[in-house]
Amino acid sequence: MELRQLKYFLKLAExxxxxxxxKELFITQSTLSQQILNLEREFDQQLFVRNSHxxxxxxxxxxxLPHAHASINAAESCVTLLxxxxxxLTGKLNIGVTFSFSSIMAETMGAFLKQYPRVKxxxxxxxMAELMxxxxxxxxxxxxxxxxxxxxxxxxxxxxxxxxxxxxxxxxHPMAHRKLISLKELEPYSLALPAVGLQARxxxxxxxxxxxxxxxxxxxxNNVNLLFKLIRQxxxxxxxxxxxxxxxxxxxxxxxxxxxxxxxxxxxxxxNSYTKHAAREFIRMLSTPATLWxxxxxxxx
Length: 301
Known about the structure:
The protein is of the alpha/beta class. The chain contains nine helices and eleven strands.
């Protein structure tokens, strides 16, 4: 049995289509068919049911699936480990970030690059769903995002801080002097919310679920910079994590008065998977208490 054959098996199990799997593997369909057949002969068991209409995993194929994943992950971890042993901290560190972590990311990134100038940082900003998918495909080494509502057994989440959901407005807004704001007090104002699917929007939907409110949602925007620009230039209010506004001039973040309005900022890595030395060091620097945390960290209750 070869690692190549296991990779072919995993791709076919993912697509359940010989033609598509061969295309994504950059091999011919006949080569794929032959290698799967060789694997079945070695195991002396059929791994796929093939007919003119569909391809399905057999019971043996389903049993092999998690072990094949583990074998490929272990082999890739071995390669990475040996490369780091040879090159120490050279190479690349791939980090996924949601927009609420911009201030935190910028501060740590500057310190990291100063201390480790030979490491290239690749930073990807996207939605949490996209970043988690890329993490599980080993395209990212770590992700900075809020804790998901549904835990994933393949992902390990280390809590960095706890923050509140806040009504964000311009510093001259009539409500900007408030220490807390109730959901009812949002009703008279036009809202420009983060787009559906973003974490702050999901948290807000959870907070208002079941409440008798008449909110004026005038815009839904998936770009934080555009949201900030609109808020600064108008009396519109948006809803974001308080941490998203740290370091932003001209804006005020007023915590929403709700027992459900809390969010936990986390570092997400793959569970039981090798973590690069550079990633471990970046996580250490992120976890080191700094002045920045004072503005966003809340005591555990």
